[in-house]
Each structure stands twice: as structure tokens, then as C-alpha cells.
Design brief:
Number of strands: 0
Largest sheet: none
Radius of gyration: 19 Å
Helix content: over 70%
Structural class: mainly alpha
Order of helices and strands: HHHHHHHHH
Distance between the termini: 35 Å
């Protein structure tokens, strides 16, 4: 309801809502007394994520993207795996005491770009429309592609550190994915 007004300021909706959440939460003024361990909060968070991702996806125009799949394809098929690889190396070097699989999970979770960070680019008319649409496609798909990698890396780390049999480790990986 207020996004159009926020779009003209340096502040964005996500920053304002995170700040409000912190100020009103148990850690701030205590206005909102939420027990984060309840299923209600989990359902609310999942519903919010679904709404955000659905809104992003509904803005795509598949007919206009025909013939322009090469840019988002390179961003997702080449760029994202490279970011995960380099992110894994960086996380392993920066954080003492984490293994390679933990570093890979960190990289997979940080690899997808947040669409809110790209708003100045995708809304700038000086940027060619083809590039703006490609960035919208990439940001709409990267979360969904990165999460299975994060689960697979977490499952791989669990499988290699536990005393379970190979079949148990494989079952755990499949359950996570």
C-alpha cells in the first residue's frame, strides 16, 4: 500500500519493516510479545515468503522473454554456481571452525540476490529493457534454485559427519531436499 511512496525515498520497504520489527519486538519496546517457537509464526513467515515470491513471479511476461533467455540463463547457470563456489572458499577462509559443507551452505544461502537491492537498476529507464527483464527473471528464480543447493550441502555435511550408514545418510539427504 505504501510501496510507491517508499520507492521515491532512500529507504525501502524491507528496511522499514525490519526496523519496525526490531523496535516493536520483545528485544525492543516489547509492544509485540511473540513466541518465535510457535507454529503460527512459522506459518506467517512461510505465507509472507510465498506472497513475495508469487508477486515477483507474476510480474514476468513470458511472451516478451522469448529469445532473451540467454542472459538470465548465464546469470543462473554460470554466475550463480560460480558465486557459490567462490562464496564457499571465502566462507571457509573467513570463519574459523566451519567445515567445507557448512561454508557451502553459507554460500548457497547468500548467493541469490535480493530483488529489493536491484530495484534502482531494474526501474532505471536508462538500463536497456532486455537487461532489466533478465535481471527480474534471475532474481525471481534464484531463490528457488539456491535453496535445494543449501539443503543438499547441509545433508551432505550431515551424511559425512554422522555415524549413520550410507543408506541412512542418503535417506536424510532426500528428506532435506
Amino acid at each position: 500500500a505504501i510501496q510507491s511512496r517508499l520507492g521515491t525515498t532512500i529507504l525501502g520497504g524491507p528496511l522499514i519493516f525490519v526496523t519496525l520489527g526490531l523496535v516493536l519486538s520483545n528485544e525492543g519496546l516489547g509492544v509485540l510479545d511473540l513466541d518465535l517457537d510457535t507454529g503460527t509464526v512459522t506459518i506467517l513467515l512461510k505465507a509472507t515468503l510465498v506472497i513475495l515470491l508469487f508477486t515477483e513471479a507474476s510480474e514476468l511476461e513470458p511472451r516478451r522473454m522469448r529469445g532473451e533467455i540467454s542472459i538470465p540463463g548465464r546469470l543462473l547457470g554460470l554466475g550463480m554456481p560460480l558465486v557459490m563456489i567462490l562464496g564457499t572458499v571465502a566462507a571457509a577462509l573467513l570463519f574459523d571452525g566451519i567445515g567445507i559443507w557448512e561454508a557451502a551452505v553459507v554460500a548457497a544461502l547468500l548467493a541469490p540476490t535480493d530483488a529489493a537491492l536491484g530495484v534502482p537498476v531494474v526501474s532505471n529507464k536508462r538500463v536497456p529493457e532486455r537487461i532489466r527483464r533478465s535481471l527480474i527473471v534471475e532474481s525471481g528464480l534464484n531463490d528457488g534454485l539456491a535453496v535445494p543447493f543449501a539443503f543438499a550441502f547441509a545433508a551432505a555435511g550431515e551424511g559425512f559427519t554422522s555415524d549413520d550408514t550410507g543408506a541412512d545418510a542418503l535417506t536424510f539427504r532426500v528428506e532435506q531436499i
